[in-house]
Structures are given as structure tokens and as C-alpha cells.
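User: My collaborator sent over this chain with a note saying "see what the structure looks like." That's all I know about it. Can you take a look?
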Amino acid sequence: MHTTTDWLTRLIAFDTTSRNSNLNLIHHVADALEGRGLKPWLAHNAERSKANLFVTIPAANGSTEGGLVLSGHTDVVPVDGQEWSSDPFRADIRDRRLYGRGSCDMKGFIAAVLAAVPAMQAAKLQRPLHIALSYDEEVGCLGAPVMLAALQTRGLNPQHCVVGEPTSMRMVVAHKGIHTFRCRVHGKNAHSSLTPHGVNAIEYAAKLIVFINALAADLAHKQQQDSAFDVPFSTLSVGRIRGGTAVNIIPHLCEFEFDYRNLPHIDPLGIVEPIRRHIETVLQPQMQAVDADSRIDLEALHQVPALDGSDQAELHVLIGALVDETVRHKVAYATEGGQFQQAGIPTVICGPGNIEQAHKADEFIELAQLARCDRFLQTLIAAQAA
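Assistant: Without extra context I'll predict from the sequence alone. Here is the result:
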């Protein structure tokens, strides 16, 4: 029987950075589950280079209907440019911490769940337990919708879900949504000594960014807020920009990307209309007065729905009792929880580790957090058997 630490050591050794395939990890886990007589199934991406894994531990009467899903993503963020004290893809235990990429976000939770499988099988479950492992959460939660569609096709209808993102084993009932966009500003080249003859794409990108920043300020001061969130208002943030070829050439192309993180009660598409209107009524007419072909394209990239826990009292009572607290926490980061909720599966976020350690060099999880997650799962299994 493998312990949580054993499993986590094995999982970290698979470099499942989102740009890579996760199939070696998925097949390794599937083989282990099959070795215990279970029947995991996979849901692949279109290229079949990545896969989600789903497995059900049936109730004592053989039922697979209803029950609770324990969900985690298998991909991790890159280590490029980070200075690590140890090999990021080799678990290293020191000072009561286990270091390695994904140890906190979120292979620690997956390891604890896999280590608990024998206990799940030994319990006389009144309701089934399910394990869901996804791909590409870190690059837009791309895998979960594929898995949820497969669940529907297979006629599976879980009653609840716990997504084990790092919350220090606190119950998180709501999080913001994420919507990312790309703006491409198409101007006109000219020699930098002839600025009136060109349309400077970088300058118009800057004008639009200033407008977006003004909208962000409005969100912070005018929008209905929710003080339960650490950042109590929706946010806009420009994260990437590139353009230009030489300092003496007026650039014909500039593009930038920004994200919008909306509170659950705020319409996620409401922010797009004023940006489009400003492009169409202010910026493009100015550009096209010089060059009729100049334009600005606004493209939606990824959309991850918010998690709104206002109608999930039964699940909150269950998980609140298991973590021994009644506080319903809300967080600014997003997870696959909103996608599960959108599919009709009430969801909470609860897992070991502190989100502040995620994505950093020398990412770690405290062994005490893993032990606390082990106890949480033991109590959860007992509750499902009651």
C-alpha cells in the first residue's frame, strides 16, 4: 500500500508541464487503479496527446449513481527561469516540507486521494466515490469540459464535487471567473521621420490600455463589491504586450493580452461592450482617417466560469463538518470548480497546501498539510459509508 508521500514522489517525477503530454502520468495511475480491480476510463484531447482520467469506486451495492467526485489537475506550470535549490521534478523532503513542482498545486491532493483508494474500497460505501484527474487546467481549464461532456455521454451524474486546489484545507465556496482576451492593433508602417504618414500600432495599443485601466479603476470604486473576497471587486489586468521591429520604423502591428476576473454575481461579458464601443467609435476612426485598412481586432481566448456557492448548503454542511469550520471562504483565483457547477454538480474547493507557494521556485507542501488531508479523506470516506 502506497502512502501519500510515496504517491506524491511518483507524481512529481512526471514532468507534466502544460506544454507537455500528461499521458505517462495518466497511464501510470490507470495501471495502479486497474491493479486494484477498478475500471478507469480516459477522455482525450483532440490530438490524443493528453487525457483526463475518471474512475468510480462503487457503493457497496454496486451502484455508480450519484456520489461525490474528488477532482484534481495533473498539469503544472513551467520552471523556466526559476532558480531551484533542488531538482524540481524530484521530490525532496527537508524541514518537514516536501519540495517539487506540483507538490502544492496540486499533486499533493491527488497523491492523498490515490493513497486513500484502498480505504475507499474497504469501506461499505452507501454512495460511490469518484476520482477525476484533468489536463491543462493551468492554461485555461481546457481538460475539464472534455471530461464533463464524457460524463454526460456515459450517463454518470455525480451529486457533489470537491476540487482539491491548495486552500490550507479550508472550505472555499466561491471564486472569481477568468476571461482572457487578445487585442491586435493593425496600423501602417512608415519611416519614423514621417510620423504623419503612418499609423503607430503601439501608440494606439497604449491608448486602448489606458482606457482599460480606467475601466479597472471604475470596477474598484463603482461596482457592487463582495467583502468576503481578498480582492473584493472584479479586476482587469494587461499581462503581455509585443510590437515593433526597430526604433526608427513606425510599427504596423502591436498585440496585447488582458484578463478580466469577475465576481460571481457580475455578468462576465459586460466588460467587453465598452471596450468594443471605444474601439469602434473612438480609436478606429482616428486610425482610418490616415489609413483605411487600419483596425483593432478583439479576440476572446479562454473563459473559466466563476464558482458561486450560494445554493450549495448541503455540500457546505458536509465539508464544513469535515474541516471543522463554518466559515465559507471566497478567493480571487479560479479553478475547474466553476465548470463542475456549470455542469450541474455542486462544488467546493478544499485541498492541502498554501496557494502562496504555487508557481514559485522551490514550491513545497508542508507534510502536516498532507497529513491533514489524509485525515480529511478518512473522515469523508466514513461519512460516505454512514
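A starting point for your reply to your collaborator: Residues 52 and 134 are 4 Å apart (CA to CA).
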